[in-house]
From TrEMBL:
Its main location: membrane. Residues 19-302 form the ABC transmembrane type-1 domain. Keywords: ATP-binding, Membrane, Nucleotide-binding, Transmembrane, Transmembrane helix. It is found in: Cell membrane. The lineage of its organism: Bacteria, Bacillati, Bacillota, Bacilli, Bacillales. This is Thiol reductant ABC exporter subunit CydC. InterPro entries: AAA+_ATPase, ABC1_TM_dom, ABC1_TM_sf, ABC_CydC/D, ABC_transporter-like_ATP-bd, ABC_transporter-like_CS, P-loop_NTPase, Type_1_exporter.
Length: 575
């Protein structure tokens, strides 16, 4: 239940709607009871041929109560739904604020389809928390207690029966069904997450599945996931309907008991017969409010599990936060020096270290290449420099200040980054370049496109989602253009030209290094050509630094770098 406390805190941001919902709900419930009680009394009184003014007063009172009940019921619906929409809005904002700092590390723990299911499905599920879980029991208790208190003036026995009926229909029976439904509800949530994951992977991987002729197998798995989800939903609905019908039967049974006991009390002259119909109508009406309690366990369990699934995601926050004081901004006058001291790192839930005891120094304005085979930890080191993941051991410093004390935003603000996979948004070339920096002119962007050999593009040319209409080389050059337009003092380049031909690559590097001659540059590359201009080369293997030095020093050692260089040259010569 502690997971629901977060939801309640978000819900109480707007207390006015909650108070008005409870107030209008109480007025609607108590006037409905009064309306039917007065109607029952009017029926009995009419049989005794009372004066006409008595009937007029009773009839007018019935109409007045009907109008009040209708208006208050409308007010209840209005304020409760407005409060629900406000709660959902605040909940989404609150969840995204907590989720944003966890990206992209969170994708190592949760698959994108499962995350989508939680963000959309579980948040939507919580709309029922206020409407079906929070305020209905409050209104029910207030209406019932007032009704029992009123009934006790006419018959203590009937009031006692109503009280027992309240306990049974509101607490005992729902609790019994809640214990049985908990497992069913959890399986429905898990099945929905699995189905969402299968759908997401099917859509993203459709082209590859088609090429490798594995579409039918994936479709079969998707159908199986859908069938499992539908069966669990069906079972959940059966439980809900059975709970509702049981509660309704019990409510009607209590009304029959009220009728039987009331008739006995009238026969023994312990109760005036004119009030028997009134008490029966009270019983029938007040137990209509218990209908919501029949589905209360289902909605409560739904809300609890939805809140738990959401909190499990954002609950990573304390582990991912680098420091409580990580709001200090990185202040850079010139290109910074970078120090990596004894850094070791393993991804969450992995026993194997991706990096082990990495120590290196990148002087201010230096140009450093990090090379090595795939899986040696080059990209992971760059991600640690960007503070994307927390360091398990050791420290990384910018200008002798630990990055644990710096905000991520200030590090990114001062860094030009080109990743192996860069995201491109649906829109135009202009839209995808403007994210580099505010205030860019068309002339600046067009000039930069020329520099990266993309002059044949117009700023108004369309870019599809994820840049699907661009080649691999065009994506890389557009990413490089974006980084150079930002023009920050730190450059982190991860395989920026792996899909670009050698001549274009040479031209781009010449311009890039001219632009970054005073900046600190880190280049991650599999290619070993053109590294003669680098101030130092770090050779990594299996998460460790195998060698370090200038190009001439490493070639003179005839070690690991020399062997890689010889292999690369022999491949090109044989080609």
């Amino acid at each position: 239940m502690k997971d629901l406390i977060t939801i309640i805190k978000v819900m109480f941001v707007k207390k006015r709607d909650i108070i008005f919902s409870v107030l209008c709900g109480f007025i609607a419930g108590i006037t409905a009871v009064g309306l039917f009680a007065l109607s029952g009394y009017l029926i009995s009184k009419s049989a005794l041929a009372p004066p006409i003014y008595t009937l007029m007063i009773l009839t007018a009172s019935v109409k007045m109560l009907g109008i009040i009940s209708a208006l208050s019921r409308y007010g209840e619906r209005y304020f409760s739904h407005r409060g629900t929409f406000t709660m959902l809005s605040n909940l989404r904002v609150s969840f995204y604020e907590k989720l944003e700092p966890l990206a992209p590390a969170i994708f190592h723990k949760y698959r994108s389809g499962d995350l989508l299911s939680r963000i959309v499905g579980d948040v939507e599920t919580l709309q029922n928390f206020f409407l079906r879980v929070f305020y209905p029991p409050i209104v029910l208790m207030l209406v019932f207690l007032c009704t029992v208190f009123f009934t006790a003036f006419y018959s203590v026995e009937v009031a006692l029966i109503l009280l027992i009926g309240l306990i049974l229909t509101t607490f005992i029976v729902p609790a019994i069904f809640a214990l049985r439904q908990r497992k069913v509800e959890r399986k429905v949530r898990e099945s929905r997450g699995e189905l969402s994951t299968e759908v997401t992977e099917f859509l993203y991987g459709f082209r590859d599945l088609k090429i490798y002729q594995k579409l039918e197998g994936k479709e079969s798995r998707l159908r199986n996931s859908a069938n499992v989800y539908l069966k669990k939903q069906e079972r959940e609905n059966v439980y809900n309907l059975f709970s509702e019908s049981s509660n309704t039967f019990l409510s009607l049974f209590v009304s029959f008991v009220v009728l039987g006991i009331g008739a006995y009390l009238v026969s023994t002259e312990q109760l005036d017969g004119i009030f028997l119909t009134m008490l029966l109508m009270i019983s029938l009406t007040v137990f209509e409010n218990t209908t919501s309690m029949s589905v209360f366990p289902s909605y409560l369990e739904d809300s609890r599990q939805a809140a738990t699934r959401l909190n499990n995601v954002v609950g990573m926050e304390p582990e991912q936060k680098m420091s409580k004081n990580s709001e200090e901004k990185l202040s850079i006058i010139k290109s910074p020096a970078v120090g990596v001291n004894g850094v070791s790192f393993a991804f969450p839930d992995e026993a194997r270290n991706t990096l082990s005891d990495i120590s290196l120094t990148l002087p201010s304005g230096s140009k450093t290449a990090i090379v090595g085979p795939s899986g040696s930890g080059k990209t992971t080191l760059m991600q640690l420099l960007l503070q994307i993941y927390p360091i398990n051991q050791g420290e990384i410093c910018l200008n002798n200040k630990s990055i644990n004390l710096l905000s991520q935003e200030s590090i990114w603000e001062n860094t030009n980054v080109v990743l192996q996979k860069n995201h491109f948004f649906y829109g135009t070339i202009r839209d995808n370049l403007l994210i580099a920096k505010n205030g860019l002119t068309d002339g600046e962007m067009e000039n930069m496109l020329e520099k990266v050999k993309l002059g044949y593009f117009s700023l108004n040319d369309l870019v599809l989602e994820k840049g699907e209409n661009l080649s691999g080389g065009e994506k890389q050059r557009l990413a490089i253009a974006r980084a150079m337009l930002k023009n920050a003092p730190i450059w982190l380049l991860d395989e920026p030209t792996s899909s670009i031909d050698a001549l274009t690559e040479a031209d781009i590097y010449n311009y890039l290094f001219e632009e970054a001659k005073e900046d600190t540059v880190v280049l991650i590359s599999h290619r070993l050509t053109g590294l003669e201009r680098m101030d130092q080369i770090i050779v990594m293997d299996s998460g460790k630094i195998a060698e370090a030095g200038t190009f001439e020093e490493l070639m003179g050692k005839k070690g690991y770098f020399y062997e890689m260089k010889q292999i690369e040259q022999s491949v090109f010569l044989n080609a």
